[in-house]
Amino acid sequence: MPQIGWLEILSVVIISILVLGPKEFPIALKKIGSYIGKFKNTLNNFQKEVSSATKEIDLEDETKTKNNKTKTDIK
């Protein structure tokens, strides 16, 4: 995987300032930051949903196993 160094980051920032202008550059950074925050929040919510679903499945499997054990113990 390629590594990004400080020189590449500095080059992108300088080109961005030249293209957008010094007044629009901070606004663009705020928008990019908010999009990244929303994306991270969405991924976090998705991960929580998957975790809760797998916990529910595990609990159902445990109760089925316990019920099967008690049925065989009773016989």
Description:
By secondary structure, the protein is mostly helical. The protein has a domain at 23-74. The chain is built from two helices and no strands. It is elongated and about 80 Å long. The model has no long low-confidence stretch (mean pLDDT 87).
> Uncertain regions: pLDDT < 50 for 5+ in a row?
none
Give the amount of beta strand, in percent.
Answer: under 5%
What's the order of the H and E elements?
HH
Please state the CA-atom Rg, rounded to the nearest Å: 26 Å
Global morphology: elongated
Largest sheet: none
Give the rounded overall mean pLDDT.
Answer: 87
Number of helices: 2
Total strands: 0
Q: Between the first and last Cα atoms, what is the distance in angstroms?
A: 60 Å
| Helical/strand content category | mainly alpha
**Helical content class:** over 70%
Mind sketching the topology for me?
Elements: H1 6-20, H2 24-74
Question: Descriptors for this entry?
Answer:
75 residues, mainly alpha, 2 helices
Q: Quick recap of the structure?
A:
By secondary structure, this protein is mainly α. The chain has helices spanning 6-20, 24-74.
